Amino acid sequence: MQYAFSIVYLLLFLSLANCVTKEEFSVVIENCAPEFNMDVPRFTALRNAVTHNTDIDNSSKCYVSCLVKAAKLVQNSKIDVEALKPLDDVFAKIDFGPCQDIKGSDECDTNYQLAKCGAQQYQKVKS
């Protein structure tokens, strides 16, 4: 699926948009990556799992969860739509409704599924 790069773009763009400086974003990456042993091969596996819509290990889901929480994209297990809208006109056009009732098996799974759904909705608008 084409939204594989969208999830990466969405996470990175929104993280940068919510951080005051690139240095602060680097801190988010530095804090999240080691905590979940995220390295290039595991990130590639994460991207492939999103591309092929297959499951990934819980640690990778927790890495995505760490990023979206640090970037304040998710509040109380919901996408913070109001926080996204001022960032870019595209986000005001996205229907995040289908994503808002997602409940995973735990917090990491829920936040991963929310990020994945948000990326899919983003791709629909960008297409």
Describe the structure.
It comes from Popillia japonica. This is PBP/GOBP family. Keywords: Signal. One of its GO terms (molecular function) is odorant binding. Residues 1-19 form the signal peptide. This protein is mainly α. It has one domain (3-126): Pheromone/general odorant binding protein domain (Recoverin, domain 1, Orthogonal Bundle), CATH 1.10.238.20. Helix content is 66%, strand content 3%. The protein has helices at 3-18, 22-35, 40-51, 58-70, 81-84, 89-93, 107-126, and strands at residues 74-75, 78-79. A two-stranded antiparallel sheet has the order 1-2. Strand 1 and strand 2 form a beta hairpin. It is globular.
Blueprint (SSEs and pairs):
Elements: H1 3-18, H2 22-35, H3 40-51, H4 58-70, E1 74-75, E2 78-79, H5 81-84, H6 89-93, H7 107-126
Helix pairs in contact: 1-3, 1-7, 2-4, 4-7
